[in-house]
Design brief:
3 copies of one chain form a homotrimer.
Chain A (H helix, E strand, L loop, with lengths): L4 E8 L1 H4 L6 H13 L4 E8 L3 H14 L4 E5 L10 H8 L2 E2 L1 H12 L12 E4 L2 E6 L3 H11 L3 H7 L21
Helix pairs in contact in A: 3-4, 5-6
């Protein structure tokens, strides 16, 4: 394992991928990672449309070829016809982690009752953890900060890179060995 | 889209479908809808036994032929052998909304620890939202009022009819466009 | 149904099955059952490795041949490569009870943010309820006591043995017939 971790950020949006919208969600993720993570990491980045095949191909590439220990996606998690990110995530994962979706919805429910419409999930592919985030920057922060305390330990368990955070910005948890 | 919305109510119960029990759960749903919804709507109604094929056929008919923007089912969501409503719902839906089941169980847990035995879920078929409710009238109100604030916006997102409620009875939420 | 209930305890652990670790989790489960349950019951017991085929075979044997009304497993529910207990559970169950996993993760989240990494679930096979528990004894208690109030009634609903508890140690809930 190299000393520098790789983290993937994929903005899934028909309009951002066509250049109609500025790619604000992807940039919001990178800003949060820079704010929280102390250890050296590089970012792999993509903006792609809400097409299941293209999302699956990007996730596989980021996990298998670019060795991302963590891949976060933004967008495509709602109930609308074109929202297909959770299905693409499940299609490429070895195992799913239902607790991420539960906790992110619980975090969002403090702000909006429509949080129950989010189908966000998370899962493991090989040595990579994939986490779906919403598309709105404010919601991205609320969601990612609700689950991030468990992410570095999860990556330890699946054999990914060791991540340390700045505890004054983001306190993560690793159980003591027993 | 016609100005008048259509909402389906399906009571799933072996005994109610045989006339052994009075159909109280279905009527309780209609009463709640009348109490909360201001915009014009008509109700499609059925009482059917706990048979997977018949539940699927009724759901498909209500969604595809009768153009229901919302279909609520009552009953058949427990752990017993004949409880098959969630499986029938999943079989006809394009996508599932796990947050509905989570929130309804959380609402019921305030009253009874056996709320975790409920397998209620929700999902989208075309332009229709299907929501499973329990069979007991008191629990129907607790459950439906816990998720209803998100239902009109969900129906907007899937291209169904626009529903407005009486905010003094049921306050719903639609995010501001960004 | 015999007057004496049968409860299965399966410790799923590569190292415990090889004798590298002492089987503490399985014993912790038996201690809790003895502490809480008043009615007569006998325990079926096994320690097996994290192999999907072997877990499935043990679950089927405990449910179908040994007539366990309840089977609790310990271990194998995390995100690591060898953690396969939830998949084996789902493979042998007729129906899944998502509320158990939600409630156990919620209980553990009061103590550790990494609770969202647990993939614990529960399901029904015939007249048996199967519940996945974590591998650490402290977490076993926290998790099992969060869902146990619903377990005897669940077993009633699926035609298993009638369990009564000592209410000063574990208060269970059965709804009044309506």
């Amino acid at each position: 394992m190299s000393a520098t971790a790789t983290i993937g950020v994929i903005n899934i949006s028909d309009r951002a991928s066509q250049g109609v919208y500025e790619d604000i969600p992807g940039k919001a993720c990178v800003d949060l990672l820079n704010e929280w993570i102390l250890t050296s990491f590089q970012v792999e980045y993509a903006v792609i449309p809400d097409e299941k095949d293209q999302i699956e191909a990007a996730l596989i590439d980021f996990c298998d070829n670019r060795n991302c220990s963590l891949v976060v996606t933004t967008g495509g998690t709602g109930p609308a016809l074109r929202d297909i990110t959770p299905e693409a995530t499940e299609a490429v994962c070895d195992k799913m982690l239902a607790g991420f979706g539960e906790e992110m919805r619980r975090a969002s429910l403090q702000f909006v009752p429509t949080a129950i419409l989010s189908r966000q999930t998370a899962g493991i592919r090989g040595h990579s953890l994939i986490v779906n985030l919403p598309g709105k920057p404010k919601a991205i922060r609320e969601n990612l900060e609700s689950v991030f305390p468990a992410i570095p330990y999860c990556i330890d368990l699946i054999g990914g890179s060791y991540l340390e955070t700045n505890p004054s910005e983001m306190k993560v948890f690793r159980p003591k060995k027993t």
